[in-house]
Amino acid sequence: MNSSLIGKIEKAKRYAQERSRMRVRGLRVDFNGENDRHEVSLEGETWRCSCDFFAGWGACAHTMALERVLEGMLPRASLYQQSASGTA
What is the pTM of this model? Predict the structure, then answer.
């Protein structure tokens, strides 16, 4: 294998462990829930989900699950758990 490619692979592994290097600013996800498929998106700091619960609450299990998966990589204002609990 090319030595420069090996170096890039090692750097990628290190970057993957250093989530603070990354900020997700936009995302689209097809989420297979227990009852249906939902489209979830993040545009800037605004979550959207096609499920009925999100329409009434502005958050749902799908958006909160993605917040956990992307922990450390999202804009602070997009985090429902922090804004709902009043913690920073």
Answer: 0.74
